[in-house]
Amino acid sequence: MSRPPAEALTLAGLADRARALSVGSDRTLIGIVGPPGAGKSTVAEALVHQLGSDAVLVPMDGFHLSNEVLESLGRRDRKGAPDTFDADGYVALLRRLREQVDEIVYAPAFRRDIEEPIGSSIPVPRATPIVVTEGNYLLLDTQPWKLIRDLLDSTWYLEVDETVRLERLIARHVAFGKAPDAARAWAEGSDQANAATIAESSRYADLLLRLAPAAA
Question: The pTM is what?
């Protein structure tokens, strides 16, 4: 069966969709998925800005394993692959956010300038009705990642032209300290292998999305 084409939506349209999902619910969790360089973080941040005080952003990247741990596991050269994250910790956080038992939950963040996660950085009050999370592996069909789909109310897979995605990714690596040749090698190597895995998981998304030009 062929995959339906991606819908072109503006940020305002995404915000309207998020608000509609939250009607009648104390807490709505929305996941934005896509390969490295697709623009997930930018779209998620802009969406939360549109939603104002009704939403908070909790990125999956806060669950990167530290560089020290990756070195000890021999995985430093594959940083960004599924097994370089604390996936069980991410699932546990989503459960806490879903259950809304705690008055406030503090989620970790990821600092690209130092390439390390920072714990307890993002406060999520119990009264906040919408939580947006974004990351590469929200739709993977392997344990424990596959548990995530049942914890989210909707998952949106972000598509972008492959050439644009690759050049954007290389530019990001350069901006955060890699030499141009090393940045391209990483983007076309480790990142590309991860991108293929992520693209395969897109069949589980509730919405295939391309951001409309008017919202860019």
Answer: 0.90
